[in-house]
Structure formats: structure tokens, C-alpha cells
Amino acid sequence: MIGLNPELVANGAFLLVAAITLAGALIAILDRNILHAVFGLVVCFFGVAGLYVFLGSEFVGAMQLLIYVGAVCIAIMFAIMLSEPLYKPAPPPDPMKLGLAAAVAAAVFGVISLLFQSAQWTKAAPVSTDWSVTAIGQALLTRYVVVFELISMVLLVAILGAITTARRLR
Amino acid sequence: MYQELTSYLFISAALFALGLFGVLYRSSMIGLLISIELMLNASGINFMAFNRFLGGDPAVGQVFTLFIMGIAAAEAAIALSIIVAVYKRLRSINIEQASELKG
Questions:
Q1: What domains can be seen in chain B, in order of their start residue?
Q2: What is the pTM of this model?
Q3: Contact criterion met (CB < 8 Å) for A123 and B18
């Protein structure tokens, strides 16, 4: 391609991914139809996966798609089908609640962005520059093996707990 | 732009603020769960961004992001089962009506 600056293309792609992420998040929190909100969440998760790819890890991006889009969003859709009927009208929005929630969220956003713009970051001493999946696997099964096994147990307990919780009450 | 830490922190802060707004504004329990997922994703972006630009060992931040995903999956399973149980009992998933434990 003639005249296409790679830096410009990368910046454009980054802006696109960021816009997809924020637009998906906006749909997820504002749409009155809860099913549309889940679709917005899916869009947002795709954007976040793109950000992970920009941050140098295709593996975590793929895991983001598998776990969040493939598992969490599908589970939320099942819960929607098992609970509130979709034809039920949503309660009318309360302008007072909307205003207060927007004010609090804007204040938190302002404080966080002021903080990270004024902060002086120092780079950690480089230990390794290996971005491969092999390095992740080795870290998971050597240094973090206790946490890894603990998360497996947490997931098992969560599955069993979810089954008993959802089944018992009648 | 895509090689600056600040732009990623900006996106992550916006995502977190949107999630917080959703938690405060939504009245359906599933809406709350969706907002909490957004906030967890913001923390994941932060881990990956600091790992990319300031971290010493690239594997560490990625491993932590994977741990966050595992915890988020467990949290979603528990929360959804609670939502289904609450719906069976109250015939509603509106957060305002689940006030039996209020005393």
C-alpha cells in the first residue's frame, strides 16, 4: 500500500478497538432490554480482547473471548431465560437515581484520571522478556501452582454451590 | 497512542466508571451482574497495561489476568444461581423487592 503510515494504521485500529469497548459498555449499562444489554457486554468483551492483543498477549485475548463471551455471557443469557420474562415492561427510570449515579461515576472517573496523570511511574527491573505461552504455563505450574490449584477448587465449589442454590428453594 | 500507558489507563478508568454507574443505576439483578463484569474487566486491562509497560516479567501480569477471569467465572456462576433462586421465591429479579433480610 502506498502512503499508509503503519503507525497511523495502528493508532486508528487502537481507537477503533477502544470505541468498540466503550460503546459496548454503554449499551450494556443503558439499554432497558436486558437481552440487548448482554449483547452490549459481548461487544465490550470483544473490544477488551482486542486491547489485550494490543498489549502483547494474544493468548489472554483468546482466553477473554473463550471465558467471558463463551461462558459468562451464555450463562447470563440462560439466567435471563430462566427468570424474568422478557415481555415484562421495565420499570420507568428514576431521574434522581440516574443523576446521582452519573455524578458518583463521573467523580470516581475524574479522581482516577487525575491520579494516573499526576503519578510518576517507575519501571520494574527486567527479569524476563519472554511473552510466549510457554512462559505463562511455566509460571502457572511453578511459582503460582498453589494459586492455580486454589482457583480450581474455587471453581469446583462454585459449580456445586450454584447447583444446590438454584435447585433447593421451591 | 497505542504505545502509551496513559491511554490504556484512561480506557480502563472509563470502563470502571461505567460499571460503577451501572451498579448504582440498574435495578435488575442481571444488570448489576453485567456492571460488575465490566468493572472486573477494567481491572484486567490495568493488570495487562502495567505488565506491558512497567513490569519486569511478562508472564506475571498475564497469569494474574487469567486468575481474575477464573474468579469472575466462579462469581458469575454463583450470582446467576442466586438470581434464579430469588426469582423462584419472589417472582421478580428487581433488587428493590429482595428486602426480606432487611428485618
A1: 5-94 (1.10.287.3510)
A2: 0.90
A3: no
